[in-house]
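Exam review. A common question shows you a sequence with its structure tokens and asks you to describe the fold in words. Practice with the pair below. Do the first one on your own.
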Amino acid sequence: MKKLCAVICVICLSFVFANTVFAQYNANGYFLIDTNLKTAGYQGMSPVMGIASSARVGFCLYAKQWENSKGFTVTFEWDGTKAEFRAGNSMTSMTDDEMTINGETLTPPKEENILAGALISSGVKDETGYYTISYAKQGGEASKAAEGLIYFAVFRTASGFQKTDALTIKASVTVADEAGNTRFLGTRYFNVNQSVDVKPATWKEVKEQFKDF
């Protein structure tokens, strides 16, 4: 009887350990906001200033230190009286089409999504000042890429928005691994017409910022 209990105990511990290891996917993962749309990959944030009415503003979200990703959810929150989300302009990849955004006209380079495959979407919620959507890779193995583009988000300022007005957009990301386990990666902020510190962030700084999640 004791031998049987010992065997059962070993099996249980092995199961718990295996699940603990598996649950560590993306444990050190995070994301950053990029406003340099002229160059592929994460370049950092530059001040977006001098933005007036009916102007498009936007940014890319980039994954950092991901290990295993099969899907993700992006969520944006902002003052709905100052801007609207442009779902038709936002996307999971970058195309080389000329656009006017963040106060300049540019042609971004083509860039694929970190999931590297056909994507399906679900869970869309589009309200004034709030937008969320989830994506999952359709078939194939999970992405093992550590870094890559998550999402390109575009907004348009309201007709009454002035250069003296400030806009802050809160962006949050959740990543899902191949088993459907999710990990919330915290929140970062995109600012318009606000002079803020835009020094590059390290993983340690991001980890400290989101240590309570």
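Now try the second one, then compare your answer with the model answer below.
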Amino acid sequence: MPIEIYNILKDMVDTIEIKFSYETGIIIQPNYEIIVQDGAMKDINCIYLDKVAEKLSEDTASIYKISFKSMVMALDNGISIEDIIDYFKEACKNEMPENVLMSLKEWNEKSKKIKIRKVTIVETDDKYLLEELKSYKDIKKDISMELPYVFEINSKDANKIKRNIEKKNHFCIIE
């Protein structure tokens, strides 16, 4: 008799675990769509996904899609792509498709390549004079970073330039 009770209880626990898994997870598909099924965690997942993905439909299950454009939106909302990867790994019911994970990792790397920031610079049109200035100990100690790959823009145009860079499918961060 005790083994029968054990088996009944085990079946009940398995059923509860399956139901809980169903209620809490999202499903990420290889076509970059994310399915959020009806359940206890649906609202929480949808609130998060509204910040990092494009909503395609909403019904019993909500469907979102991640893309370059949605990653730009996430970065603009202060959410790093690393945080998105961590969230997906935690919330995903299924194994995250390899192509999606690879794209997210690639976008993460690319998201750090272009920055628009305000800087104070020492400028001269004489490269030898510049090298001389940089060689002085009392100046060298205060150089925070040398910037070989830069161009100057008007600070009032920073947002416009950011959007134009993103139209060319490059991530850009304003610091």
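Model answer, second protein: The first helix runs from residue 2 to 24. The beta strands are 26-28, 33-36, 54-57, 62-65, 115-116, 173-174. Full marks require stating both points clearly.
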